[in-house]
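User: Show me a protein chain along with its predicted structure.
Assistant: Here is one chain, sequence first, then structure tokens.
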Amino acid sequence: MDLATFAPSPGLAATTTLETLETPCLVLDADRMDRNIKRLRNPLDDLGVSLRPHLKTAKSIDVARRFMSAPEGPATVSTLKEAEQFAAAGVRDMIYAVGIAPSKLARVAELRAKGVDLVVVLDTVEQAQAVAEASRDAGMRIPAMIEIDCDGHRSGVVPGNHAQLLEIGQTLAAGAELRGVLTHAGDSYKGGGDHAQQRYAEAERLAVVKAAQLLRGAGLPCPVVSVGSTPTAHHAKDLTGVTEVRAGVFVFFDLVMAGIGICQVDDIALSVLATVIGHQREKGWIITDGGWMSLSRDRGTSRQAIDQGYGLVSDIDGNAYQDIIVADANQEHGIIAVRPGSDARLPDLAIGDRVRILPNHACATAAQHPVYHVVRSGSHAVEACWPRFGGW
């Protein structure tokens, strides 16, 4: 895909700037985004594996077109609403990477009947039986991937449970389609530095490669071996036996990713534009109209070495202030203050001045907004408005 240009949104006023937008609103720095995309693609190309980007962060057709390798995919989604929206835009190759609920299989079959190669994910015999039954009812073999638990973080078949893995595989092969194995190194979000991330990446790789070998040794098909998390995708040194990598938040990055050393603060492409609406000078507060309804309640950095509150405050150009955070938030009020323990000083911001707040978790913050206001680095001109969607 061409990352150098994008078409302006029809009807967008030529004079729309960061100063004229209604606040709070979501701002996307296209230059930072494009740089982030290239940063991940290059090493994966060198390792000889394809990128199956996770579209759950973006939930936007316009953003997806920037980082998918082709308009038809491949792609990863986390909701059937995403699958339906992206399918309507022409995406034909998707993994629905959340354990399948049997009640949702009718929607899966409906999308597949329209020519969408939508693959489900599961980790129990009961789910495999439900997929096999839905396949018989629909007159088609619904493809499924078996999730492997590579680190005890969340879901998946424990790698040593060979009997369960084979039973699931045999059930799928008999009544549906066994497409392969998949895992997600959730422990990589704990950080630990480059060496730790390389260990997470290798553990992730070994878990699925060994599962694939076991299935194949039993005469079962396993064409796809899929790994993926943004931290491990940036640290993998060897992907032998892996066919694809999934990652999503790398397109924007966020403060959690910066906190574990996957990116720098200056790489974060997403921010919330907010307006100063008051001061509590005796308390050392600046009040904005950017409360938790626009920032989200995600406090992921509270578990990290540096707590960024509800977000790190930047000036209107996107340059982060030193140790100035949204220390607290109400529904529609954000409270800007100096980070506890710092000797930094509050910026001199008047009523009506604007700031950009970098998010703890890009997915959660973006979910609060209906549209991305797209700018270039260092520019206040809004060059496009890209819709995003939510729901399940």
